[in-house]
Write a structure and sequence with these properties.
Helix content is 33%, strand content 12%. The chain is an alpha/beta fold.
């Protein structure tokens, strides 16, 4: 572990053994203020929640669960066939008020601390860019974090997340059912369709999150699948 990226260690009891190799990173916001409140909850045995890291808005990184352990951050979740997301992922909590306490842009210092940490994790475990995802991507029916203001484009610029694709072929889906099947093929749980659409929009078309399937998001999804299938994106 690159200790120079970690400012504090505050080990949480809320962890157990992994059952799967690490193949993804899930990003969250805490939706708690001040940051000490979030740290206390993530270390409270009665809460039964945790994450591997928490990054404060000032850019301070706290290690909560060693990476080899299974932290309890994703809850009931699904991504690309994996139901035990906690076993397959590293969870990073971002100190932030969230949608519940006054949603706003993320602080530069926080993102500047996230980038090298994420880079090291992605390199260590050979994690595909398309498996660096938000909590809302793996639990669309329950979660909205890190939300539409999270700077995915900045991570994409560093090669740490998939960029919004450049549309080549337009809208190929002739009905909503075909879109949902394609959304499931990309990786989402489509059990609650509208919530899955909102999660997709929050990640890929954040300026308009309305849960409605339209030509723009159909074209984005098709391009994502096309890029993946021809090997342009993992």
């Amino acid at each position: 572990m690159a200790d120079e990226l970690v400012h504090h260690t505050r080990l949480s009891p809320n962890c157990n053994e992994r059952k799967l190799p690490i193949s993804m990173v899930v990003l969250h916001y805490t939706e708690m203020k001040p940051v000490e409140t979030a740290l206390e909850r993530l270390c409270d045995p009665e809460a039964q929640v945790s994450a591997h890291y928490l990054i404060s808005e000032e850019g301070e990184v706290t290690l909560l669960v060693p990476e080899e352990k299974r932290a309890w951050h994703a809850g009931a979740a699904f991504w690309r066939g994996t139901k035990d997301v906690n076993s397959a992922s590293i969870g990073i909590e971002l100190d932030h008020p969230g949608h519940g306490l006054g949603y706003r842009p993320f602080e530069d210092a926080q993102i500047e601390a996230l980038v090298p940490l994420l880079h090291r994790i992605v390199q260590t475990y050979d994690i595909a860019k398309s498996n660096v995802i938000g909590h809302s991507d793996v639990a669309p029916a329950r979660k909205t974090d890190p939300g539409e203001l999270f700077p995915w484009d900045r991570l994409a610029d560093y090669g740490l997340a998939t960029a919004v694709p450049k549309i080549e072929l337009g809208d190929p889906f002739d009905n909503d059912g075909a879109f949902y099947l394609a959304l499931e093929r990309y990786g989402y749980d489509i059990t609650e369709g509208r919530k899955a659409v909102e999660a997709f929009q929050r990640r890929w078309r954040p300026h308009k999150v309305d849960g409605q399937i339209d030509g723009e998001i159909r074209a984005i999804l098709f391009q994502l699948l096309l890029d993946r299938d021809r090997g342009a994106a993992r």
